[in-house]
Amino acid sequence: MSEMNATVDPAEVARFDALGAQWWDEKGKMAPLHAMNPARLAFLRDALVRHFSRDARALRPLKGLSILDIGCGGGLLSEPLARMGGQVRGIDPAPGNVDIARTHAAASGLAVDYEAVTAEELASRGDRFDVVVALEVVEHVADVSLFVRTAGQLVADGGVLVLSTLNRTAKSFALAIVGAEYVLRWLPPGTHRWEKFITPEELEATLAAAGFTAREKVGLAYEPFSGDFHLIEDLSVNYFMVAERVG
Amino acid sequence: MTGLNMSEPQAGHTGTGFSAATAVPRADVARADVAIVGGGLAGLSLALALRQGLGPDADIVLFDPYLSHATVDDGRCSAIAAGARRMLTTLGVWQHVGAKAQPIQTMVVTDSRTKDVARPTFLTFDGDVEPGEAFAHMVPNADLQYALIDAARSAGIDLRAQSVDDFTADRSGVSLSAAGAPQLSAQLLVACDGAKSRIRGMAGIANVAWGYGQSGITFAVEHERPHEGRAEEHFLPPGPFAILPLPGNRSSIVWTERTEDADRIVALPSIIFQEELEQRFGHRLGWVKPVTKPRAYPLGFAMARSFIGERLALVGDAAHLIHPIAGQGLNMGLRDVAALAEAVTDAARVGLDFAGPAVLERYQRWRRFDTLAMGVATDGLNRLFSNRSDALRAVRDLGLGLVDRMPRLKGLFIRDAAGLTGQVPKLLRGEAL
């Protein structure tokens, strides 16, 4: 397994597997992901609608697009993408996550294809997708360059790669580690390791090495009074990149 | 791509047949996205708002056994506040009733004993929320109902003249049974079935209600001179007496009395009724005569313990019933419509479960405070004005007199009565979803 798992950090996988059943508890440990979901889904939808010339106001704007959700966890992103009409494959190296995601999708009456498999394994099968999404994943992988290269291989011609992650700044340390994990107790302490965070410049260089260029860059900010997240230009904490293959 | 999972239908290869949102079809169960129970003004407006928000692909079903009957024109009219009018315009309905509507240009409030000849004016509102936009219009209910049904038909709302006899709801959906029809499963059930909501009862949601011991006598009158768009509310000891302008030389009357008096008054011989009417109506508009039959409706305040349940939302009178003193009952219902449609649309457009707990809680948070505040305000107004104490009259005259001298406070009253204060849903601002 170790060859196939080159990008997966076993300690990280075990940490998330232990979170298990709490994925879908909107008021539980995953509350911040649920709170973040409307803003990041709106951004993702808008980016895909722009890229594929769809109608953002349609009930199923992503109809027919094949979408790969890398690091799908309990399916918090996969299910909405499927509701928006996407043909979604969700993969996660933690089998517990995939079980939960599969059970939840069935209860929701949604057809999402989940598999406990790594991105490398999928790439080696030759699978390709119109959209490859890896949100809040790169800060948890063992080898960022290899991961980005693999994710890029999974993108079909004319497709798009969307990544989101945490920047390595003093502000992100204060907000994501001290704030979210220790002060607000949103996330179990140890969920993130700041030294694994990656700056937008580093991520762009990594994308370039994989033959991709970032078309859109946007930040995500938390509004403490309303408890909502919204998009900003500032990339200093949490940011998204939408990348296309060069040439 | 490799083959799809075994838990899903074999439709992936057809290209257009694959629809994740419609999930695994169960035989003999029809599916819809939203089921609305109740085809009154709130239910029909909600159907149209959701059509706008969810788009042409959404299946929206509306149940009401009365849909098979012709609309009865009982001559009743409603005051449509500016916010609600903006929503009806955005939904393409106002265009068909606007010509029959009477804008309220001015509102005059007086406080006096019934037999006082001169009624001192304590409060006047020149009622524009924006230049040229009256804060309310009087609209015949029947015309509004016709226009809404027509619009719902054109918008492809599945109108069914059936009553819903039972329903069950769980995390994955709601299942309804209607007389003589196959089971229907839906994502969201909305009860717009009025103050005696059967759906609310079936859901086991308690309703807190009390009566005022008052009834409202309503009818239309014709009068000699034009009203010039002026509404009057006279706070008489037994309760408010409102004169609301209708098109032509006509006005709508809402006459509040203690219930036993109201029942007696509507049964009076017409010549005596006429005398009682003239005493209250005054002579400013010349002669006056009723043109529809006066009817008495008991007044009450009621509020559901919760506006939501599992995959269920209560809207309009099913959620709350308030004193008609400020003419806000229907408008509160239309504000519910605007808030629920926006919460549902926002979630649906990003692929979230639009009938999940987070969405319904957003709707409830949005509406419950406003409803309670309005309920308390109208209840308080009624208690303050419906009495015979001269001391209290002095207090309230002072209060209204102060308000009258403070233009900014009056402006706030106007905008609040128009439904344009607080966090205003898009539709009430006149924006499309």
UniProtKB/TrEMBL annotation, chain A:
Entries under InterPro entries matching the protein: SAM-dependent_MTases_sf, UbiG_MeTrfase
Gene Ontology BP term (one): methylation
Reaction(s) this enzyme catalyzes, per UniProt: a 3-demethylubiquinol + S-adenosyl-L-methionine = a ubiquinol + S-adenosyl-L-homocysteine + H(+); a 3-(all-trans-polyprenyl)benzene-1,2-diol + S-adenosyl-L-methionine = a 2-methoxy-6-(all-trans-polyprenyl)phenol + S-adenosyl-L-homocysteine + H(+)
Superkingdom: Bacteria
Residue numbers binding S-adenosyl-L-methionine: R40, G71, D92, L135
EC number: 2.1.1.222, 2.1.1.64
One example GO MF annotation: polyprenyldihydroxybenzoate methyltransferase activity
Keywords: Methyltransferase, S-adenosyl-L-methionine, Transferase, Ubiquinone biosynthesis
Family classification: Belongs to the methyltransferase superfamily. UbiG/COQ3 family.
Job of this protein: O-methyltransferase that catalyzes the 2 O-methylation steps in the ubiquinone biosynthetic pathway.
NCBIfam families: UbiG
Name of the protein in question: Ubiquinone biosynthesis O-methyltransferase
Automatic annotation (TrEMBL), chain B:
Pfam families, per database record: FAD_binding_3 (PF01494)
The protein's name in its UniProt record: Ubiquinone biosynthesis hydroxylase
Pathway: Cofactor biosynthesis; ubiquinone biosynthesis
Species whose genome carries this gene: Xanthobacter autotrophicus
Protein origin, superkingdom: Bacteria
Keywords of this entry: FAD, Flavoprotein, Monooxygenase, Oxidoreductase, Ubiquinone
Annotated GO biological process: ubiquinone biosynthetic process
Family membership: Belongs to the UbiH/COQ6 family.
